[in-house]
Specification:
This protein has helices at about 5-10, 25-85, 100-115, 115-120, 130-150, and strands at about 150-155, 165-170, 190, 200-205. About 50% of the residues lie in helices and about 10% in strands. Strands 1-4 form a two-stranded antiparallel ribbon. Strands 2-3 form a two-stranded antiparallel sheet. It is mainly α. The longest helix is centred in the first third of the chain and has 63 residues, at about 25-85. Helix 3 (about 100-115) crosses helix 5. It has three domains: about 20-85; about 100-155 and about 205-220, no CATH class; about 160-195, no CATH class.
């Protein structure tokens, strides 16, 4: 018999035996097992709580950018609205009409032709008496009246008698009615008609030839 076999025979242990009494050693062993199980359960709970907190923090980080995007979108919308207001259609600029001087020079030439208008205006009348000036003015008046009536149709702006009281309504045409005197407040205004005004209803100027020079309102005359 070997040494090992003799040892097993001497210290034979029956593993099927169950203890019938609990001594201090068994109580300590049972307490240790319960304690380890409690620690294990506590660790598991701590791990679960930590994981849930991490998940909530991750969700919050995901939501925060979304919440931050919303104010940015509102700011962009406001900027777009402001740009629309800034880029609103601007009022059309006032375009000044430019006229060629040909028609004005033509009228001046007609007045010179019929009434010697330029000769009368450019003449130094200081040496003449009032009687001589009155006689010349009559000739100029007749010629000017003939020219105006032949080439223009005129009508008064107001048909009331000068000196009568009239009322100027709201929204009146400032180009057709000129207010003078003490202007206070807003229309309607009440006042006295000082001048009835004139407006041209038709123009009948003669047509110009291709080689006509409108700057020459009166040709020089040479008698041979």
């Amino acid at each position: 018999m070997t040494y090992l076999e003799s040892l097993m025979t001497t210290f034979a242990v029956d593993l099927t035996l169950r203890p019938t009494t609990f001594d201090l050693w068994h109580v300590c062993l049972a307490g240790t097992v319960v304690t380890l199980m409690a620690v294990l359960i506590l660790l598991l709970l701590v791990m679960l709580l930590t994981r849930s907190r991490y998940k909530k923090a991750a969700d919050a980080k995901t939501i925060e950018p979304m919440l931050a995007v919303e104010p940015v979108v509102k700011i962009i919308e406001k900027i777009v609205e402001v740009e629309k207001i800034v880029q609103a259609p601007m009022p059309e600029p006032v375009i000044l009409k430019e006229y060629t001087p040909d028609a004005a020079l033509q009228v001046l030439g007609l007045l010179q032709k019929e009434a010697r208008f330029i000769d009368f205006i450019k003449e130094d009348i200081t040496a003449y008496s009032d009687t001589d000036i009155g006689a010349a003015a009559r000739v100029v008046h007749e010629g000017c009246n003939k020219t105006i009536n032949e080439h223009f149709s005129l009508a008064p702006i107001r048909n009331e008698q000068e000196g009568s009281n009239i009322t100027v309504p709201v929204g009146f045409d400032a180009a057709a009615i000129r207010l003078t005197g003490n202007i206070v407040g807003a229309a309607p205004f009440s006042g006295t008609l000082v001048h009835k005004g004139w407006q041209v209803t038709e123009v009948r100027l003669p047509k110009l030839t291709q080689g006509y020079n409108p700057n020459i309102v009166a040709a020089a005359e040479i008698e041979l």
